[in-house]
Structure formats: C-alpha cells, structure tokens
Amino acid sequence: MNSTYTVDHSYKSQILDAPSTGFWHESHAEQPVKFPDLRHIAKVAGLALSLAVSPVTAIIDPWYGERRRRDAVVTMSIYKEVLGRFISRAEALRIARETLEQAERERLLFAEYEAARGIQWENHP
Amino acid sequence: MIYEFPDTSMRIRQGDIFLGLPRVDMSLNNVVIVSEAGERVAKWAEIAANGDPVNIIVPVRPVAAIVATQDCDAVRSRDITLCEIRSFRDVEGKSKDTTSAKSWKNLIIQHARINQKWFYLPPDDRVGFSEKMAVDFMVTLRVPRTELEELRDLRKGRLNPLAEEHFRERIGEFFRRYPYDEWYPLDQEELNAYMIEYPDTKPFPWQRAGVADGGVKK
Question: What domains does chain B contain, in order, with CATH numbers?
Fold first, then answer.
C-alpha cells in the first residue's frame, strides 16, 4: 500500500501569541509523585463495580453503534489491502512479458482488421 | 527528406522525434502488485474498488516516438505526450504486401486526403529510420517534461516546417473525429451493395423495405 507521508518541514507559525490574561504554566515538568490515597482507590473501585453490575439500559448507546460501524470500515480496509493471489517473482515477470507481447500482437491484428475495411487504395488508379 | 536536426540546446517542440522512449503496456485482468509481502496478481477492478494507490510491475519497451504536445504546452506543462512511431507495414495493414512505387504512392498520399490513424514518415538514416515508418495516433506515451529535456540527446530529428504543418493538422483531425455510420444516406439498392462488403451493417429505420422517407411506413 501507499506509504507516502507529507511532512511540512518549513512550517513556522505566523500568528502572534494571543495576549494572555494571566499566568499560563506551559512547561511539561513532571508533577511530584504522591503516595496513593487508599480512600480514593476504594471510591474508584466501588464506582467501577457499580457500573459493571448495573442493568442494561433499554436504549442502545449511539456511540456503541457508531464505533462498531467504524471498526467494520477499518477491518474492511485492512482486508482489501490484501488483493489478489500471491505469485512468485518468476511468474510476475512472465505475466509482464506476456502482457507486452499480447499488446503488440493485438495492435497488429487491429491493423489487419482495419486494412480489410474501406477503400483499397493500393488498387486505386 | 522531411526532417531537420536541432541541436540539444533547442527546446522540445511538436514534431520532435525521439528514439528509445518508454512505452508502457498494462493488462487490466492481470495486474502484478508488489509489496513487502511479495508479488500478487489481481484484477484492476479490485484495486479500483480498494481506492488506494498500489505499486505494480508493468512491461516497458523502448520505442521511437514523436512529440504530440503543442509547443506552448511543451514549454511549461508537467508532462509531454508523444505518439509511437512504428514500421509503416505494422501500422497500415494495407501495405503488408505493397512493393511497387505506384502502390506505395497511392497509400502514402491518402493521409492528406482522408482522416487516417497514422502519419507517414519516410526513411532517413540520419533520423534512424531505415524503412518507411508511421506515427500511430492510437498509441500514446506520457513522460515528465523536465526529465525529457535532460534526455534531448535521444532526439534524433524534427519534422521540417512543411511536414510539421501536415502533422499538426492530421493529429488535430484524428482527435476530433466523430463517430458516424457512413451508410446512413444510402438507398435500398446502394445499401444492398454496401452490405455485400459489410454484412454486419444494421440498416436505419428509413432504409428498411416498405419505409418511406422520414421513417414513416407507406
């Protein structure tokens, strides 16, 4: 499949930064590691458990259907990438050669077909 | 004969003759796809349905060709289009057994009188033609202009101004042909004579027995 990527090497933003109304912390410095809070963990686990055992809703989640549809498209795309049947390099070259020879043969046949039609100028006075 | 021999500094023009340009032939039934996984053979319909570009193996033969692109486009367009030049006997089947000068004359001059699929090029050793040749308007090649400009040493000649005028008209006429059924105005008797030569002919409604002018039955 095609593996061409477009990369813009010369991109430079021409837009000035918007005037800020306050201090914006934009560095990516890591936050200090905190010791896990056991009460917080228990709260999250409880919430997860309640969601897992909750009854199934009567309404189908539209996002679920959409995701399945998208998954099907992706699956189909990957499937389609594998086209045709695998052949050896020798067979590939043979097919290419036959294509060339057939094209040239058919051009000659066409010329003969055309020659048999219309005015036979060779016999024209 | 009818050729000029421009040096390699001169720009590419319509009527320039090159030797050894690539003519690609491909099949739509057997397309050989290459990928990291190996070679596969598929039908073009599958590739078209897939919609993505693929890399394929195609046979290429170096052939003689003449520039069909008009001068203004040959200066700036991305591609140059050429028509293949082949032996006259291969392009015009009527010349297969032609030997006499009179017969050759009748064949060669007809292209100026009727709309043909070819353009005659006389032999000339300086341009590399040792026999009668013909431009086959049916077979076109397309190559990148700037890269062809770098290969101007493959240009072996150019049509002279008079030949170029004829070539320009002939190729223009070829591509503006319209489909027609030449037997449409023949009367019943003439049509019968025509159908002896072309038995597959299908008469028009007004040419069927018992039909008056305008297709209204008598």
Answer: 3-175 (2.30.30.110), 185-218 (no CATH)
Note down the domain range covering A93.
86-118
Number of domains forming the structure of chain A: 1
CA pair distance B192, B199, nearest whole angstrom:
9
Strand partners, B63: B21
CA distance B216 to B208: 11
* Residue A23: Cβ within 10 Å count: 6
> For B60-64, B123-127, B189-193, which range has the lowest pLDDT when averaged over its residues?
B189-193
What beta strand segments (E) does B5-160 contain?
16-24, 31-35, 38-42, 55-57, 60-67, 79-87, 118-121, 133-144, 155-159
CA distance B87 to B120: 10
Q: How wide is the angle at C-alpha A124 spanned by C-alphas A107 and A116, nearest 5°?
A: 30
Residue from A3, A73, A83, A89 whose CB has the most chain B CBs within 10 Å, to mutate: A83
Look up residue A71 and give its amino acid: D
Task: Supply B77's token pair.
Answer: 């367009």
- Encode pLDDT of A69-81 as tens digits: 656 555 455 445 5
In a domain, A100, yes or no: yes
Chain B hits for A116, CB-CB cut-off 8 Å, are 93
In sequence order, the 6+-apart residues with CB closer than 8 A to the CB of B204 are: B181, B184
Q: CA-nearest residue of chain A to B29?
A: A99
pLDDT tens, position by position, B86-107: 999 888 888 777 888 888 887 7
* Dihedral angle, C-alpha B35, B38, B42, B46, nearest 10 °: -40
How many other CB atoms sit within 10 Å of the CB of residue B51? 8
> Which one-letter amino acid corresponds to residue A124?
H
